[in-house]
Amino acid sequence: MKDNTVLIYAVTLIGITLLSYILWNLDYSKQPVEEPITGNYFICGNTFSGPTSELVEEGKTLFRSNCAACHKIYKRATGPALLNSIKNFSSDSSFHFYLKKDKVTQEYGAPCIKFPQLTYEDAIVLRAYLKNAR
């Protein structure tokens, strides 16, 4: 009986060691990226039109002129990476409201510039670009 107990402990220890090694070496920085929505799509009997390439290009221009100095899409810069941050906004209006207000990120402690000049339409195209960025 004592020999079996030692064997069980040894196999358990080897299993835990292997599992720890696997989990330690996983790359958690690579987040799954949603496929960009382009063209028309069909939901519950209704046809919707996704962002066009012109809309995304306009959003790219807005991003470069307003956000790119502090933010990158995939990695942290002065500010956080925006690919995952955009998922916090459930609608264009909530994103527009966020852009126009004073904000201090707790993680970084630095104030983010507010953008009172950006219109609701600008927020729509900027959000479309960030959601469909590659």
- Helix/strand-derived category reads mainly alpha
Low-confidence stretches: 33-38
Query: What is the count of β-strands?
Result: 4
The SSE order reads: HEEHHHEEH
Strand arrangement within the widest β-sheet reads 1-2
Largest sheet: 2 strands, antiparallel
Alpha-carbon distance between the two ends: 59 Å
Subunit arrangement of the protein:
single chain
Radius of gyration: 23 Å
**Residues in β-strands, percent:** 5-15%
Helix share of residues? 40-55%
Shape: elongated
Mean pLDDT across the residues is 76
Q: Number of DSSP helices?
A: 5
Q: What can you tell me about this protein's structure?
A:
- The chain is mainly alpha-helical and 134 residues long.
- It is 46% helix and 9% strand.
- It has helices at residues 2-24, 53-66, 82-85, 92-100, 120-131, and strands at residues 40-43, 46-49, 103-104, 111-112.
- A two-stranded antiparallel sheet has the order 1-2. Strands 3-4 form a two-stranded antiparallel ribbon.
- Helix 4 (92-100) packs across helix 5.
- The termini are far apart.
